[in-house]
Amino acid sequence: MVRDLAEGLVKAGALQFGPSTLPDGKESSYFVNLRGVASYPGLYRLVVDAVGDVVSKKAGKADALFGIPMTGLTIASPVAVALGKPLAYLRPSGGPGEKKVEGDLRPDWNVVVIDDLAETGKTILSSARAIELEGGEVTKAVVLVDRLEGAREKLSKSGIALHAFTDILELADTLYSMELITEKNLKSITKSVGGRQ
How confident is the model at residue 34 (pLDDT cuts 50, 70, 90)? Predict the structure, then answer.
């Protein structure tokens, strides 16, 4: 499944190489952009199945799922339907005192946060705080790709286990073995995550 996903991401232009600026302002030698995945039904199904599989195996006892807008919500919605779980998401920013979470989250529910990527973990943490204000509890988060930039460690300190279908090194190794990226691309990704552990 990783091979099919890796190939689909490259063919859809969702994995791009060259200098880019990430949403947090950090410079990177590559960019993973999953916002357009839903325009490719075959790839979209792969992404949804991959994340759904991780949720089932690692977080199956969840009372509800929470999609981080926009791409995380695009993935979480069909996963919630397939698994028969309630879905909630963060509302676009409103005025002071307005409810931040859309959807029915009941007190003491165990909620799994879903997003497309994990970078620093900041977005997942802010969503977890919003869920906790509604009385829910977050102990697990699921993403399609871990960029290996510290999210796992940061979330762990807050009691949240991060589960990813794959990580950027596994994707890069797979693509290189399929001759879909160059050795230079592979080395740039390996360097960006601080080498191999």
Answer: very high
* Token pair for 171: 């994707």
CA distance 38 to 42: 9
- The number of domains in the chain is 1
Q: Any idea which residue has 């190794």 for tokens? A: 173
CATH number at residue 128: 3.40.50.2020
Query: Residues near 7 by Cβ (< 8 Å), separated by ≥ 6?
Result: 175, 178, 180
Structure tokens at 186: 């592979």
pTM of the model: 0.91
The Cβ of residue 40 has, within 10 Å, a number of other Cβ atoms equal to 17
- Residue 95 φ/ψ, nearest 5 degrees: -80, 170
Q: Helices 2-11 and 168-177, interaxial angle, to 10°?
A: 80
| Helix spans in the chain (H) | 2-11, 41-59, 71-83, 122-133, 151-157, 168-177, 183-192
Task: Name the pLDDT band for 22 (thresholds 50, 70, 90).
Answer: confident
In whole angstroms, what is the distance from residue 1 CA to residue 51 CA? 11
Residue 111's DSSP bridge partners are 64
Across all residues in the chain, what is the average pLDDT?
90
Strand, helix or coil for residue 24: coil
Full residue range of the structural domain in which residue 96 is found: 2-192
